[in-house]
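U., I forgot to send this yesterday:
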Amino acid sequence: MINAIFGKKLGMTQVWQDDEVVAVTVVQAEPNVICQVKSKETDGYDAVQMAFGYVKPTRVNKPMQGHFSKAGIDPKKHLREVRVEDASEHKVGDEQTVAAFADVKKVDVTGTSKGKGFAGVMKRYGFRGGPGGHGAHFHRAPGSVGQCATPSRVFKGVRLPGHMGCDTVTVKNLEVIRVDEEQNLLLIKGAVPGSKNGVVRVRMTKTQQ
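Result:
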């Protein structure tokens, strides 16, 4: 069984669930086509390579054209892998659709967080900062980051200003509110990582596999 599907985050909206309004994220997960099956005998592990997303044929380079031609499927924009327990159960050309999530209650969603550029420690890590009065000379700086003579350096892992965002983030145990098989949509309760039109992976939680 393939326990995941890849799609595009369309944005957020609200839907009615019972007698309350629920904020949901809409993920468009068009059929993912298997274009390669990897096994322990040939590749050292069991997995399937899934292709999804429309792309103009002229935007696909020669090596990828050959890869898709060998699989006998139309070129796609994205390629992703999903580990499986037994690769022999799958074959090239099979499709994974949102119908596989019809009875799924909880999912884990993985995406790339929004990039926010260079950020200080208050925005990046939630530091409190110093006093805000005019007499203070310490407002948004990180403060002490190490020792003096010993060890005369800053340890690795100290939280300092730097690039924020563009990280792979997984949010676990999100509730599936609705599955629309006709429009290939998944409505997931709450927010998921990434910006609009960003690629996300929706995976069944381990308790349901």
